[in-house]
Amino acid sequence: MNTSNSRCNSSLGKKYVMAITGLALFGFVIGHMVGNLQIFLGKEVLNAYGAFLKSKPLLLWGARLGLLATVSFHVWAAIRLTQENRAARPVRYAVTKPIGASYASRTMLMSGLIVASFIVYHLLHFTMGGLDPELLTFLDEAGRHDVYRMVVVGFSTLRVSIFYLVGMALLCMHLSHGVSALFQSLGLKTGVFGGWIDGFAKISAIVIFAGNCSIPMAVMCGFLK
Amino acid sequence: MKLTLKVWRQQDPTSPGKFVTYEARDIIPEMSFLEMLDEVNEGLLARGEEPIAFDSDCREGICGTCSMVINGLPHGGQKATTACQLHMRLFTDGETITIEPWRARAFPVVRDLVVDRSAFDRIIQAGGFVSVFTGGTPDANLIPIGKPDADLAMDAAQCIGCGACVAACKNASAMLFVAAKVSHLGILPQGRVEKDRRVLRMVQAMDKEGFGSCTVTGSCEAVCPKEISLRFIARMNRDYSVSLLKGGE
């Protein structure tokens, strides 16, 4: 064996990095959605959940730094692989037809970049209060941060909600291909359950889209107020 | 049939190429695509011009030599068909057909539509040997192989190394080719002895040749004249990681 470093730095090694970090981020997206959906259980439950997360700073910051590292590795592998892939075809075809390749699979870089900028916007919006500092100052009757009111006020601007819907559409397009491709890259898309993975990826993308979009939609419809 | 051809002409690997338009007259629908090109070349020779250089050998779809991108699709895009087995009846009279060579850094153009595919040979060489018993002639079927394994290995062994997978892939990745070669030996007991070492070396050789990586679009599988499945790529991804975890060779 040459060195384990050069093996991990091979095209397959970088695909493993892409897949493992992608799987971790997919897990986070689901957990984040389930946490946020508690808004439908009422103000009390959501604010208690928010206060619970804030009461464990070690865990919270551990998760945040872990996510930052995961995203960094995901982006690093994407940049390196894209550079190599572009270099692999210096002269382009005059005529191209995307046979057998889905739209989502051909636009992973673009959907990924837009989702990344959406994440920055989302963090500025609800975590750092960079867009409207007042959102983070709301307090409920128990003196906790009023997450419920922050979400309702945050989504009561139409263009903000629309931007979230667009962000989710691109995230879910990214996931509809990515979740299936990560199993392929890890060599797990074989055998009996190999045939189920494409369906699983598409269904999970739809569920995540519906789940996350239900919140701004509910605010816009006046269901949450 | 009368057709307009836009063909990539390039004198040698270093000179710049360009598309040249030719009229193809009196084409019979029963002709294969290569026979049509032969006909055009006869006309060029009669006029004292250089014929269009293209690769071909068996002309029965089993050697993998013919290689050209026809209207944006390797081998013309007909399911499970090489360019030599593609027939002119699939085209319409008066149609304009664009013909290009495989485009990949690892497949440099030699002349016109001919590319150098020796990168594939070097990947095969990197795979190394298969251990066999020497001595007396062994009995037939001495090593029992389950029917599912035999079938799967044969599915992989169908690869003719034409390079259409590389040509179709947006990343010019050779993963389908390498996966087919890794799998057809790795699935059978005869090839299992060197399985771990083989996959590491062949992937290393693949990367060294400058092919791209797999983004699982499935274009390769769609154009493969031998219908090699993407599941072989998944299998190779697994073999590679298992081999890494075992500590390599």
Structure, briefly:
The complex is a heterodimer of chains A (225) and B (249). With 225 residues, chain A is an all-alpha fold.
Query: Which regions of chain A have little confidence, pLDDT < 50, spanning 5+ residues?
Result: none
Whole-number total of structural domains of chain B: 2
Topology order of chain A in helix (H) and strand (E) letters: HHHHHHHHH
What is the percent of helical residues of chain A?
A: over 70%
**Overall pLDDT confidence of chain B:** 96
Q: How much of the sequence of chain A is in beta strands?
A: under 5%
Keywords:
heterodimer, A: 225 residues, mainly alpha, 3 helical TM bundles of succinate and fumarate reductases, 9 helices, 73% helix, 0% strand, elongated, B: 249 residues, alpha+beta, Ubiquitin-like (UB roll), Fumarate Reductase Iron-sulfur Protein, Chain B, domain 2, 2 domains, two-stranded antiparallel sheet, 7 strands, 11% strand
Could you outline the blueprint of secondary structure elements for this entry?
The complex is a heterodimer of chains A (225) and B (249).
Chain A: H1 4-8, H2 11-36, H3 43-54, H4 57-87, H5 103-106, H6 108-127, H7 147-154, H8 158-185, H9 191-220
Chain B: E1 3-9, E2 18-24, H1 33-46, E3 69-70, E4 73-74, E5 96-100, E6 109-111, E7 114-115, H2 118-127, H3 147-157, H4 164-168, H5 175-186, H6 195-209, H7 219-223, H8 231-245
Parallel strand pairs in B: 1-5
Antiparallel strand pairs in B: 1-2, 3-4, 3-5, 6-7
Question: Can you describe what's shown?
Answer:
The complex is a heterodimer of chains A (225) and B (249). Chain A has 225 residues and is an all-alpha fold. Chain A is 73% helix and 0% strand. In chain A, α6 crosses α8 (158-185). Chain B has 249 residues and is α+β, with helices and mostly antiparallel strands. Chain B has two domains: 3-111, Ubiquitin-like (UB roll) (Roll), CATH 3.10.20.30; 117-245, Fumarate Reductase Iron-sulfur Protein, Chain B, domain 2, CATH 1.10.1060. Chain B contains eight helices and seven strands; from the N terminus they run ββαβββββααααααα. Chain B has a five-stranded mixed beta sheet with strand order 2-1-5-3-4. Chain B has a two-stranded antiparallel sheet with strand order 6-7. In chain B, β6 and β7 form a beta hairpin. The longest helix of chain B has 15 residues, at 195-209. Chains A and B meet through α1, α2, α4 and α8 of A and α6, α7 and α8 of B.
